[in-house]
Inverse folding.
């Protein structure tokens, strides 16, 4: 049942496309799931993908369009005329998917497509959704849902549902509203199947409904759905009226994206890229942090320059520069990662920032003591310079303390000022720790050379 | 509707608990969602949490137990007698949650609890599930599901469903099986509501069902549910019989955990820890990579030691050590992160490893040329040693090439040998790049000093 993408498959598909052999092409891909076809487009040129797309029936071509990755879809849509896009959307595409697809296009094309959509309700749903920021509940929600009045009985409810449900692809819950469309609760389809037809909805529905406001950020939506194990979440406006619903599949994407963004941020990549992106796109995404790190390296070199005198006197001092900078970077990354992950998962609890810093201070003391003792013993037996042996241990201890506190403090501060704390990971932390590390190390060497040397 | 955890709330709760004031305690937490109560336990001592737990009705206490984080739950369960745990489980807890809860306990306690569960079917479901590895589909699935025979008509189907559905918490799909319990397809509740009661199931159900084998790894399960936008996924045994189903809420946890694990691995943290864990637990999780990095630092120092002669002659050589090691680390992390993320998301496409390496080589050439040119110009105007100026640029270029290829190659190799490629991130990559970086840099300095100096 499940499809595995192979090079052989793509080769024979390409061959069929090149021969403009629609029949063979359809034989190859006709029975595949839309998500698999979307994956295949990823491996083809736009023109090849377009050839396939125009062969598919409208239902399938809509599903494929929804399943495409954003960047591929954007490039792909540019090649399709507005009336074809409108035709695909008109055929029962969910409003949230339609808005996502239209939203990436230039304003002029958006207008053209909307004029082709003659179902006023569908067009106005899409226009409504286009107004919301894509990183909010409004940007994630679909307008399609099944809502019933709390004053109905089950028979009336089932009759109305049959009408409404035709438009809605996946129905997991029925939303219960009052006469003003204010959300009152939910009714599961399972419950509907289990209770008597004459029951009044008012006595049967679940009043403890969790909802989000249309302006809630999508990260909050993801956290709520994850925490309360929800598959669908109703969205209300500022006076409590039901305006849409968010399904878990859209939120899974948010969770993956958020996690991926933090991961790339930590690895010093400034745009969302993939291994399959072009060399130029990938170089552009990697360059900014590399340039910042290089200027950090220049600063480090100016710091070391100040100690050229001591380095001439005791060149072995250079030996431990990589250890000091490396350890500072590692310790700083560890501390910042724990804070940033806690902020992202909303799992920091109610500990105050001051308490967190104190705790990290204790961890740093413990780490610092253990590691600087190990290196002290090691250097005691291997190094011929007592000044260097003592300097390395004191410097390592100090650098671990500094890097830990810095790595904890910066993300907390950024978060306080509503800046994404994940900025303070990876290259930023390691670069600052490099510069401060060499300064601390060489200053301690110089001091001890003055006192003991 | 939604609850926000504050320090004031915890303080008044603690006060009530200390006074053994059950009424006030219940007033404070009685109406909260189980997931909120679980969050509150996180902030309390085990004994305080236990006091609350015994006040809750059995339904709620079961839900709270399921919502607790694994480590908190494990500590908490140790304080509860077996018959209480059995009582909580007996009260309609889903088999997958029951197996998760029992699975963390010592064998002896597991046996004790199971003897207290008198519903043979429930006990045997739990025992079945305990046999599966927790990182497989079998470890994620629940036994509770609604299955109907393909030969029934809708009336019979609805009657049987009413019987089965009472036990199943969330029903999204009905699974259609043949007489041997082999999975044939699915029927959505929506469809059931829309079609006539006399219809035969055989003509109504969706035959294109996506399923997983009970042994499939949980990462694969997550990728499938994400890719095909599924809320529930049936699990079959090796001859196609329906044995369970996985719901999306469990998979969201898998996705979060996988992403979190990769993030922590990259930041050099060896266990799954949180900011709220104790100082000792956190130190233990951070120490292994720090010790490895420190021995990497010692190796670097031995490499530099070999060049003490050159360093005495030109102490300014030390100035660029942090830049070389820092850039090597950054470039290496970027390359490995893209490969590791691609492997985790299954998004590497069908490009061969050789093609990926060639592409990274091109990116490295581009990055290396740009950055070494910038530093060449900078040093040309600021440094008084031509040897150093040229050495730094050649070394930076070489280190970027080496670190990029190494960062691409290692995760691909690890993955080939079925080792988690995320091991090759963070401290491992930066440490190797530090050692090789100083060697490349100082060797080039030495060579050029011999030729030009």
């Amino acid at each position: 049942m499940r499809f595995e993408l192979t090079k052989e498959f793509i080769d024979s598909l390409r061959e069929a496309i090149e021969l403009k052999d629609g029949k063979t092409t359809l034989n190859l891909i006709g029975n595949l799931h839309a998500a698999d076809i979307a994956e295949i487009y990823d491996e083809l040129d736009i023109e090849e993908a377009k050839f396939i797309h125009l062969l598919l029936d409208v239902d399938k071509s809509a599903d494929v369009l929804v399943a495409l990755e954003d960047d591929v879809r954007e490039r792909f849509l540019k090649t399709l005329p507005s009336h074809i896009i409108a035709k695909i959307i008109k055929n029962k595409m969910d409003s949230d998917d339609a808005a996502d697809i239209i939203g990436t296009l230039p304003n002029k094309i958006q207008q053209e497509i909307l004029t082709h959509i003659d179902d006023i309700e569908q067009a106005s749903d899409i226009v409504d959704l286009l107004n919301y920021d894509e990183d909010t509940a409004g940007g994630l929600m679909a307008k399609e849902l099944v809502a019933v009045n709390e004053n109905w009985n089950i028979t009336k409810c089932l009759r109305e549902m049959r009408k409404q449900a035709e438009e809605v692809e996946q129905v997991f819950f029925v939303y219960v509203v009052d006469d003003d469309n204010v959300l009152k609760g939910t009714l599961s389809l399972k419950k509907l199947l289990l209770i008597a037809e004459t029951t009044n909805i008012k006595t049967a529905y679940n009043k403890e409904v969790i909802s989000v406001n249309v302006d809630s950020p999508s990260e909050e939506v993801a956290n709520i759905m994850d925490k309360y194990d929800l598959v669908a979440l109703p969205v209300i406006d500022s006076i409590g009226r039901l305006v849409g619903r968010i399904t878990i599949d859209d939120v899974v994407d948010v969770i993956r994206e958020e996690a991926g963004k933090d991961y790339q941020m930590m690895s010093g990549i400034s745009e969302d890229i993939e291994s399959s992106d072009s060399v130029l796109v990938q170089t552009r995404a990697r360059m900014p942090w590399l340039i910042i790190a290089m200027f950090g390296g220049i600063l480090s070199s100016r710091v070391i320059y100040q100690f050229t005198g001591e380095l001439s006197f005791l060149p072995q001092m250079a030996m431990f520069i990589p250890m000091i900078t490396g350890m500072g970077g590692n310790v700083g990354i560890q501390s910042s990662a724990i804070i940033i992950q806690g902020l992202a998962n909303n799992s920091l609890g109610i500990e105050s920032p001051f308490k967190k810093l104190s705790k990290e201070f204790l961890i740093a003391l413990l780490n610092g003591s253990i590691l600087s003792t190990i290196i002290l013993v090691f250097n005691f037996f291997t190094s011929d310079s007592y000044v260097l042996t003592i300097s390395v241990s004191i410097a390592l201890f100090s650098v671990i303390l500094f890097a830990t506190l810095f790595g904890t403090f910066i993300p907390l501060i950024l978060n306080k000022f509503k800046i994404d704390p994940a900025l303070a990971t990876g290259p930023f932390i390691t670069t600052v720790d490099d510069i401060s590390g060499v300064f601390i190390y060489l200053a301690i060497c110089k001091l001890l050379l003055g006192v003991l040397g």
The two ends of chain A are 76 Å apart (CA to CA). The mean pLDDT of chain A is 88. Chain A touches chain B through 132 residues (CB under 8 Å).
